[in-house]
Amino acid sequence: MRNGFAAHHFYDDDGNPTGGITTGLGFTIGWQNGPLGRGENRRLPNGAFVEDIIDAAKDRLEYYQDGQFACDENRQAIEYLEYALSC
């Protein structure tokens, strides 16, 4: 386990990501396995995308900002996460 979490990432025979799982104290993330496709062949997601997790972290920091844990560091982190989501 590194940085307080363990990650197991999987690849197909061509080296493309095919999902995986990341776990740590209080969380488990099942990553999207394979592409969604487009048009009539589009599939429903079967796991989380990085953008989902960034948005969840941003939501939690915004919750802190509405209470006694509001601080400049949280405000700045929210700005960086918003920037990451906009790219």
**If helices are DSSP runs of H or I spanning 4 or more residues, what is the number of helices?**
2
Structural class: alpha+beta
**Helix/strand order:** EEEHH
Number of strands: 3
Main sheet: strands, sense, barrel: 3 strands, antiparallel
Give Rg in angstroms. Answer: 16 Å
What order do the strands of the largest sheet run in, or round the barrel if closed? Answer: 1-2-3
Helix content: 25-40%
Low-confidence spans: pLDDT under 50, at least 5 residues?
none
Identify the overall geometry.
globular
Q: Approximately what portion of the residues adopt beta-strand conformation?
A: 15-25%
Distance between the first and last residues' Cα: 30 Å
Mean pLDDT, to the nearest integer, reads 95
Number of structural units classed as domains? 2
Description:
The protein is of the alpha+beta class and 87 residues long. It has two domains: 1-48, no CATH class; 49-87, no CATH class. Helix content is 36%, strand content 23%. The chain has helices at 50-65, 72-86; strands spanning 5-11, 17-24, 27-31. The chain has a three-stranded antiparallel sheet, with no helix packed on it. The longest helix is centred in the middle third of the chain and has 16 residues, at 50-65. The chain is globular and about 50 Å long. 1% of the residues are buried. The mean pLDDT is 95.
Keywords:
87 residues, alpha+beta, 2 domains, 3-stranded antiparallel sheet, 2 helices, 36% helix
List the SSEs and their pairings:
Elements: E1 5-11, E2 17-24, E3 27-31, H1 50-65, H2 72-86
Antiparallel strand pairs: 1-2, 2-3
Helix pairs in contact: 1-2
